[in-house]
Amino acid sequence: xxxxxxxxxxxxxxxxxxxxxxxxxxxxxxxxxxxxxxxxxxxxxxxxxxxxxxxxxxxxxxxxxxxxxxxxxxxxxxxxxxxxxxxxxxxxxxxxxx
Length: 98
Ligand SMILES: [Zn+2]
What we know:
By secondary structure, the chain is mainly α. It is 18% helix and 0% strand.
């Protein structure tokens, strides 16, 4: 049984831009205290470049357009799968952007 997209819950440990799961929740466990760290995957700075959904979408588009390169390649899992990871990002509420 597979659920389509929307069944994936918001995970506080995931980067909202690229969907990478971090060791520390980028916005704190309550979602209100950004770490201001950088995502090792897409390189976004939490609490700064991901404050607004529009900014998140823009960062993601830029990251994907650039080839979805890792900001910290040494952190990249050997079995990393971009498509799989992108299933965890909120694709936004503006379909006209697609
Ligand atoms: Zn990221």
